[in-house]
Predict the 3D structure of the following.
Amino acid sequence: MAIETLLKEKRIFRPSKKLVENSNVMQWMKEHKIKTYDELLKVASKKRSWFWGELAKELEWFSPWKKVLDWKPPYAKWFIGGKFNIVHNALDRHANSFRKNKLAYIWEGEPGEVRKITYGELYREVNKFANALKELGVKKGDRVAIYLPMIPELPISMLACAKIGAIHSVVFSGYSAKALQHRINDASAKVLITVDGFYRHGKVIKLKDSADEALKDAPSVKKVVVVKRAGNNIKMKRDRDLWWHDIIEKQKPYCKTVQLEANTPLYILYTSGTTGTPKGVIHDHGGYAVGTYATLKWVFDLKEEDVWWCAADIGWVTGHSYIVYAPLMLGVTSVMYEGAPTYPDPDRVWQIIEKYGVTVFYTAPTAVRMFMRFGRSWVKKHDLSTLRLLGSVGEPINPSAWIWYYNVIGNKKCPIMDTYWQTETGMFVITPLPITPLKPGSATKPFPSIEADVYDENGKPLTNKGGDLVLTTPYPAMLKTLYKNPSRYEKTYWSKFKNMYLTGDVAHKDKDGYIWVQGREDDVLNVAGHRIGTAEVESALVSHPAVVEAAVVGKPDKIRGTVIKAFVILKQGTKPSSTLVKDLKYHVGEEIGHIAKPAEIVFVDDLPKTRSGKIMRRVIEAIELGKPTGDISTLRNPETVNALIKLKNNRK
Ligand code: PRX
């Protein structure tokens, strides 16, 4: 694979001595007589089971594991035989300790209300809701769908499910009714938890209406629990819909946490793949808990007194791992914000950091680029001196955004932890630690014990050349499998290179072993840090009555990284029009969600196809980006190439 490597970033940023000396990781190294970062990486790789076993001992187990790791590729079992529950570690143990009256969450609604929730209060709320779920007939192993925005009832619902051994499936509140329906049906969820409405950009988003639409064909759902948030008018269906506040009213604030074997599923989270059907990624209680706990503790160096703000949505894995489970296991205080980061003004985020004294802030490059566009005057209105570390996730951070983030937000004193990971990995896998020298734009090196490499098409390791990024060793939070689809799990991740996990990303490794992720290699787009399968958008477009065929490609965008551009073939007799463009965008929004709406739609007569009829997306993409089309001899209709080039030139 000849993939160009364009980044030529040379700067190195070394962490301050004070940060290194006081860091959690350095503390651990001292306790284990390890002197340097390189030595840590070596020891952890060599003694993988010992390394994770030591970290796992920092959590509480009902009974110890018999073996740390059983690796029968491509299936890994961690902490086998250990009796565990992530909620015991995230909540119960704090509620019975000095942290009882410590804040777990400082929640701010978009209109400005604040809810401060202590560990003790969170514990009681989770127990009450867990009892309510039991009363609704939810049992160990049952799936519960959660379609909630960023309100405290979202983590409460997740924790309540986990407490009783039920499996939660959170569906991002920006997804459409159709997307929700698909996920409910795939998992045969018994209960759905949703909300009347919530605030975004000053408007009320009526989520219950979407839930009702989804439930028109979701027969597994027997009960719907509705949180009252925005107070908008909704319809409650008799015998099916129940208000959250009604069902918890009479519940006891104590509920036993079930003891589970460590490998018991904790949740399903759907993510886009290369086909139109999303993949149900499964994570478990034990390994996932140890992996997320250890990575947050070491990478973001969280201490008792820190105020942590992971500004993601809990509907994505970032929020599952690093707003809900890991920070609670660490017993830190987290900020949680409901609304848009620029509402009512572009300094909302800086205002929140100043107000609550946030010390560690974690966001996505797309947000950094947006803040850059608004300019530093919005930042300078606020005192951000409490910040001591910053983080980035979701896509490669371009060095110019990295430097702006470092200079303007971090005031040149906060190292940036560029964490590379995925829904599937559950935890950071390639990431700096506070002791790692940083190169802007590189996620640096794998987390201790993990090994990553870059392979050419034949599985030969490459240096300084782009190739497939693979993870060659197991780690505790890695996905167990895909829900009801082990063959897709084996084929997607483990078949290209035997027993090696294929990330689907292209990267290159420099001479120092630093990894530079360049982007997706498969047919998945990364739009503003969200993963969207081209096939999903194409099938949404084709489901519109006016469309025969569609191809979707990514187009570089200054703020969002990539935006979606669609090429559409209309049914005979249908006239292209701007109304139809609007209608198609709306339709994709209805089918998937607003995040998947194409930024641009063009109508074409034909699309380049192979002899077997497969649309050659790569050729379309090359034309769109003004790159050479490469070998087109396998095309059935090579004339389409010139037609597309002409169309592009005409639009200029
Ligand atoms: O392409 C990589 C990109 O996001 C993908 C994973 O997306 P998702 O499963 O939705 O999880 C996002 C949050 C963990 C990856 O395959 N990605 C994520 N983090 C980075 C990144 N690309 C480069 N640098 C990162 N730090």
